[in-house]
Amino acid sequence: MTVRPEPADKSWIALTDAGRGILDAAAADPATVLLALDFDGTLAPIVDDPAASTMAQESREAMSRMDGKLATMAIVTGREVAAVRRMTAVDKLPGLEHLVVLGQYGVERYDAVSGALRDPEVPEAVRIAKGQLEDLAEELGREDPRDRGCWIEDKGRAIALHTRRAVDPAHALATAAPRARMIATDLQLHCEDGRNIIELKSAVTTKAQALRELIDEVEPQILIMCGDDLGDVPALDVVAGWINAGHPGARVVSFSGEQPSMADHADIICDQTEGISAFLEALADRVCTEM
Ligand SMILES: O=P(O)(O)OC[C@H]1O[C@H](O[C@H]2O[C@H](CO)[C@@H](O)[C@H](O)[C@H]2O)[C@H](O)[C@@H](O)[C@@H]1O
């Protein structure tokens, strides 16, 4: 069994040479850094109701300090762009004028600096899936009291079945996931697994493609991706390939016991969203003072 050092409360710790070297590398050449950040569980603490999520203020402040100083700073998320714009207050409060948001695993895009929005049409199959997942949530509760409390989040181009509010969230997810996968197969949709959630989405796009879109566009020298969940692994793997090719980079994981396998994808491990805030503050300190 691999024994990993654990970060102190609300802090972070580097596990690899890549992780140990990332602040020096970023401080030496901030304008070549591509910083990609997941939203839920990374910038925003996990809560029962996704509509009530709020971004950690410390992370927003650290990001604001770096805004415009890096090659690009982007939120790469499973959420809709509209939700992230609301929850970051990117259009209302100062500080994130250069932020890029890649939403719904990269299908949607918003560039704060220009106001450009990419928002393609939603396929009919997703609307059909919504009805079938609602029926499934009801059936689950009728069949087993442990699975009562599942609910459906409608994100337009994706529909998510949430089990966090179920009587036994892990049991409900284990029961729901294979049945949700069958619905996805029938409707030729794609599944995305996460923390007490299974999503059915129209596009096969993953966060790996979203991150590659930014890499191709920005041509960074230094690549940092922060995430917490299985949906982030494809993008973290892109960073692993980047590091293996000899470039400076780091996979920064917001770690919680809910998804322990994420430790296997980390160069830096953080104590949940507070640890991410501490890492972003350290990055902002180095990037801003040494310019
Ligand atoms: O890519 P992300 O930014 O991590 O978004 C992935 C999904 O996150 C949301 O669900 C998660 O956060 C909820 C609020 O804290 C929590 O209740 C749920 O259990 C988590 O799975 C969101 O609701 C989804 O739409 C996102 O796709």
Automatic annotation (TrEMBL):
Family to which this protein belongs: Belongs to the trehalose phosphatase family.
Biological process per Gene Ontology, one example term: trehalose biosynthetic process
Annotated NCBIfam families: T6PP
Pathway in which this enzyme or protein is active: Glycan biosynthesis; trehalose biosynthesis
UniProt cross-references to PANTHER family, sorted A to Z: TREHALOSE 6-PHOSPHATE PHOSPHATASE (PTHR43768:SF3)
EC number: 3.1.3.12
UniProt keyword terms in alphabetical order: Hydrolase, Magnesium, Metal-binding
Role of this protein: Removes the phosphate from trehalose 6-phosphate to produce free trehalose.
Highest taxon, organism lineage: Bacteria
UniProt-recorded Gene Ontology molecular function terms: metal ion binding; trehalose-phosphatase activity
Cofactor annotation: Mg(2+)
Protein name: Trehalose 6-phosphate phosphatase
Catalyses which reaction(s): alpha,alpha-trehalose 6-phosphate + H2O = alpha,alpha-trehalose + phosphate
